[in-house]
Amino acid sequence: MVTDRYQHLRHHPDVGELLAFAAAEDLPVVAVDNHPGSVPLETVHLPQRCMLLFGQEGPGLTPEALAGADLSVSIAQFGSTRSINAGVAAGIAMHAWIRQHAAPGAPA
Question: Locate the tRNA/rRNA methyltransferase SpoU type domain: which residues (predicted)?
Answer without folding.
Answer: 7-95
